[in-house]
Amino acid sequence: MTAKSRAADRLIVALDVDATERALDIVRELDGLVSFFKVGYQLFITEGLTFVRRLIDGNKRVFLDLKMDDVEETIRRAVANIAATKVEFLTIHGSGATVRAAREGRGGRKEPRLLSVTLLSSLDANDLKDLFASSKLTVESYVEWRAKQALDCGCDGLIASGETIGLLRGLYPSAIIVAPGIRPADSSRDDHKRVLSPGDAIRAGADYLVVGRPIRNASNPRNAAEKILQEMEQGFQDRRPV
């Protein structure tokens, strides 16, 4: 697989908008360039699985970012419903029991691939101190613990950002790593505290990148996506084989 084909296959554009028509405008704008899209809470609460099915019926790949965390029976039943739609990626944000319940809900299917959120890209060491009342907990130690728990319990991959991408790639060479908080050099960090450029994230070991506002809010979203793909292609070329 060439660097170019890998980049086109590995860019996930976040459809973090309020309604179907706005989301479809973005999909149409990027047609032939991007085929993988993230549906998160904002759009899912408005449109639900009906919109997800519409994307899949249109030959688009879907990453359903719901960060699922609930009692085991609820997770089991919900994931079974999601698995029937052919969603490709699904985020889990609970304990090991949550992961195991999600795998049971998926049954014998290979998809959705279950991805554990190690630490939101909007959080840093100061936030961990607020959450856990501990000044000894570092981003690295927390992410490492979360990743081990998730993978040991059956997750297929991890959501990782910033400096933790390289850490987790070194520890888990075969895990899927999806990186949010991606910002080109000339973009605002927005509410992400731990960011990398597209090229740096790929060089660090990310398999897929999630990009939202730098594409969605650009004056020309297609041109913005093309530039990100170029940076990703260079990252793949520079990256040493694991």
For CATH, the homologous superfamily is named as Aldolase class I
Q: Which percent bin holds the helix content?
A: 40-55%
Strand order of the largest sheet: 1-2-3-4-5-6-7-8
Q: What Rg do the Cα atoms give?
A: 17 Å
Order of helices and strands: HEHEHEHEHEHHEHEHEHH
Q: Could you list the spans in which at least 5 consecutive residues all have pLDDT below 50?
A: none
CATH arch. level architecture: Alpha-Beta Barrel
Q: Tell me the total number of β-strands.
A: 8
Residue fraction in strands: 15-25%
Largest sheet: 8 strands, parallel, barrel
Give the tally of structural domains: 1
Distance between termini? Answer: 15 Å
What would your notes on this structure say?
It is a single chain. By secondary structure, the protein is α/β, with parallel strands linked by helices. It has a single domain (3-238), classed as TIM Barrel, CATH 3.20.20. Helix content is 48%, strand content 15%. The chain is built from eleven helices and eight strands. An eight-stranded parallel barrel has the order 1-2-3-4-5-6-7-8, surrounded by seven helices. The mean pLDDT is 88.
